[in-house]
Amino acid sequence: MWLNGEEVPFEDNPRAMRCLKALQRLALAKGESLKFPLEWKLHIVSRNNFPTAAGLASSAAGYACLVYTLATLYGIQDEELTAIARQGSGSACRSLHGGFVHWHKGEASDGSDSIALPVVTSAHWPNMHVLILVVNDSRKKTSSTKGMQRAVETSDLIKYRAKQCVPQRIQAITEAIKQRDFETFANITMQDSNQFHAIALDTFPPCVYMNDVSHAIVSFVHAFNAAVGHIRVAYTFDAGPNACLYVLKEHVPSVLQAIHTSFPNDAAGSVEYVKGIPIDGTASPSSTPTTADAILNGNFTLPTNERNLLKYIIHTKVGLGPQRLTKTDSLLNPSTGLPY
């Protein structure tokens, strides 16, 4: 197996091996002739185009693709696979579907019914976009898995959250998604992110994922929403300092312009600074604000931070889930069986 160009021992990765063995058992259980015998050795190449192990769900993306690819290879892509993907990375079960997805906790003691099911497809809310502000793309000190295990063992707050907060919030945010109610969606998203990091601090020893720049981004979002008079952007932080900002497509240029103002960066004019989906409309640091956002240059001043606090920005949107690529997009050379 090669991960981002580096050869890594597959057998030494217990999570990857669990996924492989579970898929092979599922293939055998079907009792049909396999296109590729299970005894055949595998060459696997995985490559991320965003930071690995930096709190941006790289493991979820990687294990979702691994499970989907092996299931396609063994002819079981139509089976229930989310419980298998979860054995690699919990969040990977959600990444096997496109659109908005609900990971159900389940009731079985063995976790077999803890699966992910779609809420709506990506086509339901096509203008829901995301700006990822990358503060630090290095590997975090405490992995998501270890941090969560420690929280379950030591945090009193997590018990209250699981029983009193999560069920109500899931119900409310699911309805907000179905109704395309951005304000409700945004409020729940930010409150839940804050509570998650409160639990990380309640863990003993504490897991500190956010840093000063993360908190500056939180302050920026609240200031921006106050300036425009309603909630236009929402933040959420996973197990890392990097921010995911939800914003509707039509507001991406104005929000990005405000980010350039509040977080000035010497690289802002570079094509490598804002990556991902091209921005519709002008969103450079020197661009002229629209009439709707004139308030930002009038009666309200956004907080201005030190220069170069952000490494880069990724512009993306709600995705389709795993997609099978063409042969020309393959990461393996079919003649040699080795990476290109």
TrEMBL record:
InterPro entries: GHMP_kinase_C_sf, Mev_decarb, Mev_diP_decarb, MVD-like_N, Mvd1_C, Ribosomal_Su5_D2-typ_SF, Ribsml_uS5_D2-typ_fold_subgr
Kinase keyword on record: yes
Chain segments annotated as coiled-coil in the UniProt record: none
Signal peptide interval: none
Enzyme class, first EC level, given as a word: lyase
Keyword Cell membrane in annotation: no
Domain Diphosphomevalonate decarboxylase-like N-terminal: residue ranges: 1-116
GO cellular component, as recorded: cytosol
Reactions catalysed: (R)-5-diphosphomevalonate + ATP = isopentenyl diphosphate + ADP + phosphate + CO2
Any single biological process term in GO: isopentenyl diphosphate biosynthetic process, mevalonate pathway
Domain called Mvd1 C-terminal: residue spans: 130-324
EC number(s) given by UniProt: 4.1.1.33
GO molecular function: ATP binding; diphosphomevalonate decarboxylase activity; kinase activity
UniProt family annotation: Belongs to the diphosphomevalonate decarboxylase family.
Protein name as annotated: Diphosphomevalonate decarboxylase
